[in-house]
Amino acid sequence: MEDSVFREQLVELLRGGEAHIKPEAALADVSPQFRNVRPAAAVRSVWEELEHMRIAQEDILRYTLDPSWKSPEWAEGYWPAEGLTVTDEMWKASVDGFFSDLEVVINVVQDSKVDLTAKIPHGEWRTYLREVFLVVDHNAYHLGQIVQARKLLGDWKE
For site-directed labelling of 21, which of 108, 138, 140, 141 has its Cα 20 to 30 A away? Predict the structure, then answer.
């Protein structure tokens, strides 16, 4: 497969669609009153899922690019504190941060100077491609969780 085609297909996976919902669609028009409501005891809120995706994606990205990056403590550092009142500013910052970091991941994929199959110099055995797939997989899973939570809350328009 030609390198540019491979990179284009990775970008399609990162942006969602086809087999997975696009992040823009999953997060569109979330009613403010439902942002931090857990629809059931074992189901996290839309806010918790979004903020978890943002934190994890940031961690994967920074780990990939910055040898001095320190990951959050597992597992509590990857989730927002419970019981927060989610303001419009917090929601916007989380959405903006998620999409901003997603674009940086996409830029890495599109950069032909980055050998995606190479091991990350400071990443033990991990490759750039492995980290990109981790972002794809993790985001797809949690976007599905967001849709499920919204459906359970009656805040999903199909």
Answer: 108
Identify whether 158 is part of a domain: no
Give which of 31, 28, 79, 90 is closest to 55, Cα–Cα. 79
Model pLDDT for residues 114-132, shown as the tens digit of each residue: 999 999 999 889 999 999 9
The total of structural domains in the chain comes to 1
Instruction: Indicate which CATH number applies to the domain containing 96.
Output: 1.20.120.450
Token pair for 151: 């459906």
Structural domain including 66 reads 3-153
pLDDT tens-digit series, residues 87-118: 999 999 999 999 999 999 999 999 999 999 99
State the burial class of residue 153 (Cβ atoms within 10 Å of its Cβ: 0-12, 13-18, 19+): buried
